[in-house]
Design a protein that fits this description.
Blueprint lengths: L2 H21 L4 H6 L6 E7 L2 H18 L2 E7 L1 H14 L6 E5 L3 H6 L6 H7 L30 E13 H4 L2 H11 L9 H17 L16 H11 L29 H14 L11 H9 L5 E5 L3 H6 L10 E4 L7 H6 L8 E7 L7 H10 L6 H7 L12 H9 L3 H8 L12 H17 L4 H18 L5
Helix pairs in contact: 1-3, 1-16, 19-20
């Protein structure tokens, strides 16, 4: 089923649902919106499947129902942050909604950028939608709350960075026999890094031997874009037992091994070395690949396995207008070093990235009442199933049991089951208000490791030093 068809079907479903709701006496939305007829609220977000669904389906439906226009600007990841932050810094009120990625929320809270949505609705009971309830969210919503449990962002996407593999290749009898002859073991999804490496090398060699555009793994390894920095720290390092970027917040924010951190420790060296070795046998576009290109690479059938953001899993597995591997995709947990799974199950670590974002309302918004209505509209249980099918993301617990989602879960090889049953093993970014500053201080050194201008150990040593220097300047390290 194509993405375009899903959007069309979803729009129709929402129109019918909304019409039925009004007919059943739920004219609440129209009445609550009466004072704001003709108002235009503006939002900025990344051009991603979940955001496109808001722009193309939910925003028009809300306007039809309420008379409030919603302009959703979808742009690149860096422009999204730049525009939103500059607007909130200046207090100009250009945007009424901004996309808040899970890893930046702590910086926004520290700078008082956002409106306390819990308090705003409590202070304006006439705007409290009868079918909006913070209790409907999954625990992912906790990332957008302050220490007192107040919500500052309405979750609109949440997904895992998962291990995708080609079921058709892994299940091919001839390929299985060749793999068994070469390695002495059965061809199944990897559970360790050595197994993953063995599979990756096998398929890269297989592609060469059979003159195929096929490689053994993806690699989000751009040499000048933060996507590669995030791949390493969010998706690779934790699988080796390096958590929270290797910074120990409980130990004076130490980053270096000499001071009690882990950013340049043996596990970090092993993680970086392994990841670079996978990049070297990945498709040739990998050194220029961000999160977007990795999804495109896998969807084009150019990789046998890889770590891919779950928001891309839907179109890769089921959208035959964009993907060449529809019906051929399996999903599994990432490969792990010894002890990492046990640590995650004990709540002492995590195995990968639980990604996602929310829409927050800047303090500078000039249309807070109308915006609060829209944020509640997109947070209804009723709109979630079609959204989850169009752009695989789950923010509400009820979504998992919807028949459409249950059916689509089969097409995605159990992806929703993985989120529901194993999501607790993954984690978002650490609660660092200094997130951007440390990333910017270390990323240039990181890129030098990728280009080979610095060795792994030397590069990680320099990154740890840069991180600690930045944290000292910011007042975190004493």
């Amino acid at each position: 089923m194509s993405f375009a068809f899903k959007i069309g079907a979803s729009a129709l479903a929402l129109t019918v649902a909304a019409t039925a709701a009004v007919a059943d006496g739920h004219a609440w939305w129209q009445k609550a919106a009466e004072p704001y007829q003709g108002v235009t609220i503006r939002g900025v977000t990344e051009s991603s499947p979940p955001s496109l669904y808001i722009r193309e389906v939910l925003a028009p439906q809300f306007e039809e129902l309420t008379g409030i226009r919603v302009d959703v600007e979808t742009t690149s990841w860096d422009q999204m942050f730049d525009k939103g932050i500059k607007d909130m810094e200046a207090g100009t009120g250009i945007y009424d909604m901004v996309y808040i990625e899970q890893d930046i929320i702590y910086s926004y809270l520290a700078r008082d950028f956002l409106t306390n949505l819990t308090a705003f609705l409590a202070d304006n009971p006439d705007l409290q939608a009868p079918n909006y309830d913070e209790g409907n969210f999954t625990t992912f919503a906790d990332y957008f709350k302050d220490a007192d449990g107040n919500l500052y962002g309405v979750p609109m996407e949440a997904f895992l960075k998962v291990y995708l593999y080609r079921k058709d290749l892994f299940g091919d009898a001839d390929i299985q026999a060749a793999f068994k002859e070469k390695t002495g073991r059965d061809l199944v999804p990897a559970t360790t890094h050595d197994e993953y490496s063995e599979i990756a090398q096998f398929f890269t060699d297989y592609g060469k031997e059979n003159d195929l555009e096929l490689w053994g793994t993806t690699a989000q390894a751009h040499t000048g874009h933060v996507a590669s920095w995030y791949e390493y720290y969010e998706s690779v390092a934790p699988t080796f037992g390096v958590y929270n970027w290797g910074i120990d917040a409980d130990n004076n924010y130490a980053a270096s091994v000499a001071n009690g951190g882990a950013m340049n420790g043996p596990e970090a060296v092993e993680a970086m070395t392994w990841w670079l070795s996978m990049r070297d046998i990945a498709p040739p576009e990998s050194p220029a690949s961000t999160w977007t290109e990795v999804g495109t690479t896998f969807g084009a059938g150019r990789a046998a396995q890889g770590l891919v953001y779950g928001e891309n899993a839907g179109w890769i597995a089921a959208d035959d207008s964009k993907s060449l591997v529809v019906g051929k995709v399996g999903v599994a947990l990432p490969p792990l070093a010894d002890g990492v799974l046990d640590a995650a199950e004990a709540g002492e670590g995590y195995i990968g990235y639980y990604d996602g974002g929310a829409f927050g309302m800047p303090h500078s918004s000039k249309n807070k009442e109308a915006t609060a209505l829209f944020l509640q509209f997109i947070a209804q249980n009723e709109v979630q199933p079609d959204w989850a099918v169009a752009a695989p993301r789950v923010t509400h617990t009820a979504t998992y049991d919807d028949p459409k989602v249950v059916a689509f879960n089969e097409e995605l090889g159990g992806y929703y089951d993985l989120i529901r049953d194993k999501g607790y093993l993954f984690a978002g970014a650490p609660a660092y208000p200094f997130h951007a500053q440390v990333r910017e201080a270390t990323a240039p050194i990181f890129y030098q490791i990728l280009t080979g201008d610095l060795g792994v150990q030397d590069g990680l040593d320099q990154m740890a030093t840069a991180a600690e220097s930045t944290l000292t300047e910011l007042g975190y390290r004493k």
